[in-house]
Amino acid sequence: MRNLINFFIRFYFFFLFVLLFSVSLILISRTHQHQRTLFLHSGNLIVGSVYKQVDHIQSYLSLKRVNEQLTNENTWLLHQTMASFMQKDQNEMVYHDTLYIRRFKYINAGVINNSVMYRNNFLTLDKGSNDGVEKDMGVITAEGVVGIVHNVSGHFSTVISLLHKDVQISVRLQKSNHIGTLSWEGGDYRTAVMSYIPSHVELSHGDTIVTSGFSTIFPQGIFIGTIGDYEIRRGDNFFTASVELALDFNRIANVFVVIDLMRQEIQVLEASNNR
Amino acid sequence: MKLNFIIRYTLLFIVLILLQAVIFNRIQFGGYVNPYVYLLFVLFLPVDVHGGILLFSAFFMGLVVDVFLDSPGMHAAATLCMAFARPAVIRLISVRSDFEPGTIPGIRNMGMTWIITYSMLLILVHHVVLFFLEIFRLDEFLSTIYRIFLSALFTLVFIILGFFIAGKSVDRG
């Protein structure tokens, strides 16, 4: 027994290393299961408030660009209001008052932390569960899809960026409505990859890619980017195309969190298929 | 003396964490290269520091950086490996094997070549562990190696700069 203790004391450096290393491996593996410990993410209050202070200063530097972006967004919204339409047929008028019900709601949030240079990137937002943000909600901007809400605390939330190994988004070609899967294979943060496009589809450079809406995360028809190069990879029956993302992930300042009001209904219905 | 030691390193710890979180995590050379200046803390501990202190402080440093970067465990593991390799690296590259007790690595007492070799080797250990833990597979091997070297070079530049600044402040204090 005493020899054993002496042995441990003598090689304490090694054993301490092994112990601490296993602790960190456990932490990493827990992340991979997407069950983060309560305090070890940047949504927690102390780290969140540090980032918020920094962002407060930084946001002044990008005011010009944010203004530009908001003006674009306003123009786009103005296009869709009734005021920009003229009634053509005066004789007959149909009043659709029960034809539409609201499906999506949006919460606007500021980005207080962001990265693009890792293989797996996250963002931190300054809105949390107090503002109605929940896990697995989609995050978009006027320019494209940003990611999916991952963790939520009272005042902050973290978002898995589209630039993450485990994120795949269902998208479609606007031209022909063929669907595929969008993911990011590392490297340049301005290009992603769209895979599983059937080989009979006629692709061309510059085709528009939008979200398919086949989930309760993103509304359909949100612009993502355009097709760059495409090929059929060896041993594959599908096209794999590179997609030039419209959204510059390095410059995101404001985002919208998407709330799908029909989410529970759809999920309950779809879950009944599996039974 | 002992208290002075603790206060000084705690200050260094906080300053490096803030530098890393507020400034260096936002610098992105060429899209995805990020210098990790917080490693200076481990490099800057006295040569004969107690092994337990070395490992625990490195682990804790990595953990705090992890919290800021949303990567639980990765920086902790990488910094820990670096701390574990440190005594061996010092033994490997030092000509005279006995230092005065409490020697803090610096350009003046060790020389430029020693500091660069010492920093580069340990930064590489850190980066190799970190980047491979991050992708957790080998199929992007070459691009990962490329990223490791590029990132390590940038880190080295800032670390050497840190050694210069630290040397100046030691002269003054």
Helix amount of chain B, in percent? over 70%
Quote the average pLDDT of chain B.
84
Main beta sheet of chain A: 6 strands, antiparallel, barrel
User: What's the CATH class of the largest domain in chain A, please?
Assistant: Mainly Beta
Largest sheet of chain B: none
Q: Structural class of the secondary structure composition of chain A? A: alpha+beta
Global mean pLDDT of chain A: 83
* Count of alpha and pi helical runs of chain B: 7
What is the rounded distance between the termini of chain B? Answer: 14 Å
Number of strands of chain A: 12
| Most extensive chain interface and residues per partner | A-B, 41 and 37 residues
Whole-angstrom Rg of chain A: 24 Å
Task: Give an overview in words.
The complex is a heterodimer of chains A (275) and B (173). Chain A is an alpha+beta fold and 275 residues long. Chain A has two domains: 14-61; 105-274, Rod shape-determining protein MreC, domain 1 (Thrombin, subunit H, Beta Barrel), CATH 2.40.10. Chain A contains five helices and twelve strands. Chain A has helices at residues 2-10, 12-32, 45-61, 63-80, 263-273; strands spanning 104-114, 122-125, 138-141, 144-152, 157-161, 169-173, 179-183, 191-198, 208-211, 223-232, 238-245, 254-260. In chain A, strands 1-2-5-4-3-12 form a six-stranded antiparallel beta barrel. A six-stranded antiparallel β-barrel of chain A has the order 6-7-8-11-10-9. The longest helix of chain A has 21 residues, at 12-32. Chain B has 173 residues and is mainly α. Helices cover 73% and strands 0% of the residues of chain B. Chain B contains seven helices and no strands. In chain B, helix 3 runs antiparallel to helix 4. The longest helix of chain B is centred in the C-terminal third of the chain and has 32 residues, at 141-172. The two termini of chain B are 14 Å apart. The chains are: A alpha+beta (275), B mainly alpha (173). Chain A binds chain B through residues 12-13, 16-17, 20-21, 23-28, 30-32, 36-37, 39-42, 44, 47, 50-51, 54, 115-120, 122, 124, 158, 165, 186-189, 250, and chain B through 21-22, 25, 28, 31-34, 51-52, 55-56, 59, 62-63, 66-74, 76-77, 80-81, 83-84, 87, 133-136, 140, 143.
